[in-house]
């Protein structure tokens, strides 16, 4: 009875979450669910998507309004993001927010953090505990962003290679003041591994309009190719809203996708359809890592505009773009990028995949072991709920 009485008198903890895309929303929803189990007296607000809203976050803005991909598109939305940052700051000030959790989306979140920090220093905003959960990929963009991360109260990473990068890849004097925590990967708690493979080829076109626009022309041409006429393809869309991109593609290419006999479209969770699939062809993103934890091999594809590709190739400092490959430090999943994302290359890789898929499943099993045991989300939630 004492515990219940004490709990009722606890001060309500107010947390603002800032994420910008579907993968960040998924991660945010998992930690919100866990934190709410630990402390019922916690209120969550922020820039989130459907999954976090379902988990109990009151949305100040929806991430669907942040639908951008690449450097050029981000520049076009600069005014929008500047305006929104001001609105979020005002909300945080007026509503007595105590903690801000930034989830991925570094292009916006680092600038938003800088704005909040400036207002705190000017005494125009209450003091805040500010945590970066899944920080910008400094191992891809270079060490300059480390300087910005030093000013956060805490930084939490979700891959062992990230923790190693901070601990071993930096000189002690450079990393001074930067506290980086690693508790394991939260997806380990959410996805069960299976070594059983089905008969269908899973298609994952991505969650952004630009991704789908690049994915669909190549994939529809592939499906109609004589060499794969006996294969069954299952295209999983992230949302029913994405049907508008399918309809736009059909109009432009004068085709009815629903009449392609060996293609089926689904909105079911990947967990539910995984057992029916033997491997996937997927746009690079968090989803390729999710299905790797479920033991499903993937051919990873990605295409962006020429200018975005040029900028990325001259700035990004990584050998692979897929999280599974990065964590393994070798190519487990074939990556077909830009001009390599073609019907001809896909046909070659499908043939190779048929021969090697069981071997890849074994590799995925070993890779999963590196990511920690269950209970990761509980550890992260406990840490996030700690007082400053």
Automatic annotation (TrEMBL):
GO terms for cellular component: membrane. This is Lipid-A-disaccharide synthase. It catalyses: a lipid X + a UDP-2-N,3-O-bis[(3R)-3-hydroxyacyl]-alpha-D-glucosamine = a lipid A disaccharide + UDP + H(+). Its EC number is 2.4.1.182. InterPro entries: Glyco_trans_19. It holds the Pfam family LpxB. One of its GO terms (molecular function) is phospholipid binding. The chain crosses the membrane at residues 279-302. Keywords: Coiled coil, Glycosyltransferase, Lipid A biosynthesis, Lipid biosynthesis, Lipid metabolism, Membrane, Transferase, Transmembrane, Transmembrane helix.
